[in-house]
Amino acid sequence: MIPATETRSKRCDALEWLRGLAALAVCLGHVRALLLPPLRSGDYAGWERGLYFLTVHGEAAVWIFFVLSGYLVGGSVLRQVAVGSWRWSDYLLRRGTRLWVVLIPALLLTWACDQARGSGPVITGGAMTFPHPLAADAWTFLGNLLFLQDMVLPPFGSNLALWSLAYEWWLYLLFPLMVLAARSRAWRERCLLAVLAAGIFWLLGPRGRWLSLAWFVGALVAQRRAAPGARGLPGPRLLPWLGLVAALAAALAAKPYLSSSFPLLAMPVIVVATVGVLWGEAGRADPLPAFAVQLGSGSYTLYAIHVPLAILALTAITGPFWQEPGPTRWLVVFGLTGGLLLFAQGWWWLFERRTDSLRQALTRCRPLS
Hints:
The chain is an all-alpha fold. It contains 13 helices and no strands. The chain has helices at 13-35, 49-54, 58-83, 88-117, 138-145, 163-183, 187-225, 238-258, 262-281, 290-297, 299-314, 327-350, 355-365. Helix 1 packs antiparallel against helix 3 (58-83), helix 1 (13-35) crosses helix 12 (327-350) and helix 11 crosses helix 12 (327-350). The longest helix has 39 residues, at 187-225. The chain starts with 12 loop residues before the first helix and ends with a helix. Residues 5-10 have low confidence and may be disordered.
């Protein structure tokens, strides 16, 4: 999930659209995994293969999120450091409000959904599995607030999608430490910053270190795009988007043969294709329809709340469509995804929409330095 954002005037509508599509892919993939057997099981009719293709890109969508986050947040860090306007206090306030305005309500909503569902195990008809009992104690809640899920503690309750937010937060801290350490002329300051960066890099673990590569690539693209003389890609605007679709299709086709090596081999392909879209779209002022921009604006909210809501909704759904191939179960998959998308837009209006106003209020409350 990418909670990164810029002010509306600096946004590129096409990148908002890409971010929204990635969040929708994660949501759709989770709903399908809650209801239907995995693609490799073969427990479906031939006509369903095309629908499976639309719903199995959640892992690749997370990689796209991290490239976009590196591009937006990492690029902002590089620009501020370059012109001498960098301040840790402003940066942490911006990043903290961006994450917590959505995360705190999402954790409370997760608790409410899990309480309403009951204390029994999460029963699904698909490939997605949940521990029993769920980790829903106060320490896990606090650990998720401090972005320690998936590294020290499990995600809170049934909201397994929260795992990526922890890596996002620590990369927010790691990257400026690395940039400032490289630019510092005081060896003591450089050593301190390097030690802190090394500690965070160790905390990330193998999964986070791998994801950090996608994030750093996004930041590198932002730096290169800001260089004098940088130009867009030649050829039709649609080509980079078609390249990303082709990369997703190739990764899906190769996945059964790559086994445990899938992320190692597939992620660079998806990252390169995403870079193509970034390079082709950055700097364009072409507006997109409001619904496309809004899908991106509410993408973080959708990502943060969809799993517990989907599980709660599925507790009321029973029937043979869980096991038998047929159109009914796909109607449930797409219908529930649409309902989650609509609910997320209302939740966005309640909380995420107010991020900037909350940040401004907190800025005014800070003591003058």
